[in-house]
# Entry
Amino acid sequence: MPQPPGVTAWIVNYGGHDYSGALNRSDISNIDYLTEDYVPLGYLDRVTREVFTKIEKTSPDDYLLISGLTVLNAIAAIAWYRKHHQVKLLIWDTREGYYRTMTVAKTQLDLMEQMIHGGGNEEHTESGEST
# Structure
């Protein structure tokens, strides 16, 4: 089934929680999910195929809403990055009561790789500038 027009928040695992807060963002008009209900660890191979199939329907403007098993979120984020060369995340901020966004793109990954491989001890801002 084709996605309706507009930006979609893709929930990694729809577990029955209220995700309507994602629609409070002016840039999001739809909510959909990659998986739903309880996902047993023993079924990750099968579920991973389902995740890949659904990610094929996503757009670079869409968001990945973190929810459910940590390993499933990691798999979804990696697949999303491979498709779009960035991951726009929606992460629930319990203290503030809204979804925060975080975009992981090649620039940030290159900086992380430099830090891991001893590319300097200086701190970097979100834009990648040294401080």
Observations:
- Residues 72 and 107 are 24 Å apart (CA to CA).
